[in-house]
Structures are given as structure tokens and as C-alpha cells.
Amino acid sequence: MKTADERKKALLEGMKDGLIVSCQVQKDDPIYTEDMVVKMAEAAKWAGAVGIRANSPEQIKAIKEKVDLPIIGLWKIWYEDSDVFITPTLDAAKAVWEAGAEIIALDCTAQITHEKTVAWDLLDQVKKEIPEAIIFADVSNYEEAKHAVEHGADIVAPTLYGYTKETANIEGADYRMFAKICRDFKEDAYIMMEGHLYTPEDAMKCIYLGAHAVVVGSAITRPHLTAKRFVDLLSGYQHNWRDAEKAKH
């Protein structure tokens, strides 16, 4: 069932049919500067975005000081022995919350974490430890979406479609799967689309299919990856640009 908390509901309803821009930069990105994510977020607000998705307590704090939009916060932490990297621990979730994010994004897949737990088990822990937070479940397939909804995630999105071993070779969004998630779960959670959206038309298609809102990142805020997509095609697919997109930092 969707949240009955009036504060959470007001924030989530304020995002309806809107664009959330993922404003992230890593220190080894060619566009990195200390204030880059703030400039990204300011540009997103100027354009009319209804929210920001941001990575790491440091960058969340920097954006929060300058941009008055709800923040979906996460903390990417990579481990050599696990593919789970989006807010993989309770301590990481607490740090994201303390940095000022109203919404905490978690890996809610069935993958095994560095701590040898199932990633989606963290959802119940965070809901218990930080009940004031809105939880954004990043999943990769329908079954994980169902599990997230059943365990009380406020928002569910197929963010990790393409980032698990089972979906590693995909080339684009699975709109049919997303439509089924919307049909089956939109009464119980806010369903958003994130991942592999490159044009306004892609985003509008998702709204038509039932998305409450859409999250777009690389196509807007990572010009080096946009350029690499062009080069990848022009060079006859000799090098896959997604290798750079999925790189550990």
C-alpha cells in the first residue's frame, strides 16, 4: 500500500509526471570539478525538474545547500567481490539520510552483497532504522519489483536492469516489463522509470505506460558518455560504450 504519511505523500505527489535529473560525477570523469554536481542540479532546476538524484554524502550536501528540490540520495561503494554498489550497507543509508536526502535509494535486487547478504534484505532494515525516509528501490526485473513492493518500498524503478549478470547484455530499456510493473504495482507503490532513457520521447513513452515520474542521468549530465555512444556507433561497435558506463570508480 502506498504511504499514508502526509509529508511523504505530498513530496511524492509533487513529482507526478515530472523529470528527475541524476546529477552525479566521479573524480575520474573527464568533466569532474568540485562544483560540477551543483551546476548540474542548478541547470536541472532551471529546466523545470521536480527532483535530483545524487551520489555520496558529500555531493548530496553540496547540492542541498544550493538547490531547493527533493533529493534521491545514494552512495555508490564498489567491492571486487560483489556487483552490489548502490547504498550497500545500513551505515551508507544513514550517511545519505544525514546528508539531507529526503529519499534513500537502495539496491533491492537478489544479488549477494560484499557482506554475504541478499541486497534486498537491507530494505527492511532501513525502514526500521530510518522510518522518516522515503525508500526508492532500485531493481532489475519484475520479481525484484514485486519483492520490493511487498516489503514496503515507497518507490520502485528498474534502475539496475542491465547491471546484473542476468541482464548484462541488454541494449535498451525493457518497456514491456516496465508496463507490467506499472499495471501490477502502481496501486501499492510509486513506480518510476530509470535507466536507458536517451530522448524526451523515451521519457514520455514511460509516462504513457504508467510511470509516476522518470529519472534521466547520462543523456543529460554525462556528455562524455553521450559522445562515446556516438563514437561507438561510428566505429562499427568495436568498443562498447557501456563498459565505460558500468565501470567501477
From TrEMBL:
It catalyses: an N-acyl-D-glucosamine 6-phosphate = an N-acyl-D-mannosamine 6-phosphate. Pfam families: NanE (PF04131). It is an enzyme of class 5 (isomerase). SUPFAM superfamilies: Ribulose-phoshate binding barrel. Pathway: Amino-sugar metabolism; N-acetylneuraminate degradation; D-fructose 6-phosphate from N-acetylneuraminate: step 3/5. GO terms for molecular function: N-acylglucosamine-6-phosphate 2-epimerase activity. GO terms for biological process: carbohydrate metabolic process; N-acetylmannosamine catabolic process; N-acetylneuraminate catabolic process. Keywords: Carbohydrate metabolism, Isomerase. InterPro entries: Aldolase_TIM, NanE, RibuloseP-bd_barrel. It comes from the Bacteria. Its EC number is 5.1.3.9. Gene3D superfamilies: Aldolase class I. GO terms for cellular component: cytosol. The keyword Isomerase applies. PANTHER family: N-ACETYLMANNOSAMINE-6-PHOSPHATE 2-EPIMERASE-RELATED. Converts N-acetylmannosamine-6-phosphate (ManNAc-6-P) to N-acetylglucosamine-6-phosphate (GlcNAc-6-P). Belongs to the NanE family. This is Putative N-acetylmannosamine-6-phosphate 2-epimerase. The gene is nanE_1.
